[in-house]
Each structure stands twice: as structure tokens, then as C-alpha cells.
Specification:
9 strands; alpha/beta; TIM Barrel; binds iron/sulfur cluster; nine-stranded mixed sheet; single chain; 25% strand; 207 residues
Length: 207
């Protein structure tokens, strides 16, 4: 019998709260895959394969159930870039276990298996046109991290690229946070279908 397919998992943890976007404050657990197809300069996520472990779908589901002690049955699937590994067998196993799947992708790759909520957080500014944002992804929300590279023209390009119900600007949480926050507020004020998203988990100190 062949061994079940392994996925490269950086961490599975919970219970915690979703910190960002339309579901901010929602109890959940996290499944973070290793590896990303991009290399954004201000990336604050450790997605290196170093320290990641190989788990098959049944092992991932067992671990999700274990950390979901309060029964949120909501898993945030992130990375790295989760579409590199998310496929139908894993999606079926996680959803059959009763989990609602919320995924955050950078919008540069096809989604190979179903999710219940797709957040696209595009970062093309770090890659000199070397990759394309896919226009036909089933996005529920677009979340743009605001630094000096993000302006009205950038947001207008995203608006023409996707159809989504929720649009967020989120200040980059670096040493110039106050500056980025002021710009994000200004953008949301002038484009009122966009809303301000703050990284609630960082503000209240949860993982
Ligand atoms: S797409 Fe996300 S995880 Fe990948 S390098 Fe950029 S910020 Fe980091």
C-alpha cells in the first residue's frame, strides 16, 4: 500500500482568534504551510521549510481536532502560500471533519480545491512585474497591506481585477506604523467601500 501524501506543515495551533479582515475576532485554529512562491521584503511570517514537518491529511485533521478544544470548527489555512499544497484530498478530509476553511493567498496561483472563504492579499510591488495576479479567483475579501507603494491607482487596479464583497486596507506593522495607519485611513475615507483592518491579534497579544 502506498504511503498517504505528505504536506509540509510549519505549524498547527489554537485555539485563537482570527485577527484580520471581515472575520476579525472569530475563534479559530490555524494551519500554516511552509514555503511561499514570493519573497516580500517586509514579510513577517516564518514559512521556511527548516523546522517544518511532513504530515498526511489524516494527521493534519487529527491535530486540528486536538487544538480546536472549544469547537470553533473554523480553520485559517495560510502560509507561506497555501495554494502550493492545498489539494482536493486534504480539502475533503478537513471539510469532512466539519471544519469551515478560510484561506489567505497572495492571489498569484490557481486554487486547486474548494475553500469556504478566500482572502487575497496581493503583494506584486515587491516583484517587479515578475508574476501576475490571477483575475478569476473566487475571492470573498481583498486585503491590501498599506505601505508607501500602495495608493489610489494600486487599489483601483485591484478593484478591476477581482469581484469581492469585502475590501480592506491594513497598515503595514513596521517601524513606520503610524505613517502607514494614517495613509490607510486616508485611503479608506476617500474610497468608502474599503474598510480599515487592524491586526487585532498583534494589538491584543495573541498568536
Ligand atoms: S506572499 Fe505572504 S508569506 Fe509569501 S513572502 Fe509575501 S508576505 Fe510572506
Amino acid at each position: 500500500m502506498s504511503r498517504p501524501k505528505p504536506y509540509l506543515v510549519k505549524e498547527i495551533f489554537g485555539p485563537t482568534l482570527q485577527g484580520e479582515g471581515a472575520h476579525a475576532g472569530r475563534p479559530c485554529v490555524f494551519l500554516r504551510f511552509a514555503v511561499c512562491n514570493l519573497a516580500c521584503t517586509w514579510c513577517d511570517t516564518d514559512f521556511a521549510a527548516d523546522g517544518a514537518i511532513h504530515l498526511d491529511a489524516a494527521e493534519i485533521v487529527a491535530r486540528l481536532r486536538e487544538v480546536d478544544r472549544h469547537g470553533s470548527r473554523t480553520v485559517i489555512v495560510t502560509g507561506g502560500e497555501p495554494t502550493l499544497q492545498w489539494d482536493a484530498p486534504l480539502a475533503d478530509a478537513v471539510r469532512d471533519a466539519g471544519f469551515r476553511v478560510h484561506m489567505e493567498s497572495n492571489g498569484s496561483r490557481e486554487l486547486r480545491a474548494r475553500v469556504d472563504w478566500l482572502t487575497i492579499s496581493p503583494k506584486p510591488q515587491f516583484h517587479d512585474g515578475r508574476f501576475h495576479l490571477l483575475p478569476d479567483l473566487p475571492a470573498a475579501e481583498i486585503k491590501v497591506v498599506v505601505d508607501d507603494t500602495v495608493d489610489d491607482d494600486v487599489l483601483a487596479r485591484y478593484e478591476s481585477n477581482w469581484t469581492a464583497e469585502h475590501w480592506f486596507v491594513q497598515p503595514c506593522m513596521d517601524e513606520r506604523y503610524d505613517h502607514h495607519l494614517a495613509r490607510a485611513i486616508d485611503l479608506a475615507t476617500r474610497r468608502p467601500w474599503w474598510r480599515l483592518s487592524l491586526q487585532l491579534h498583534k494589538l491584543i497579544g495573541v498568536p
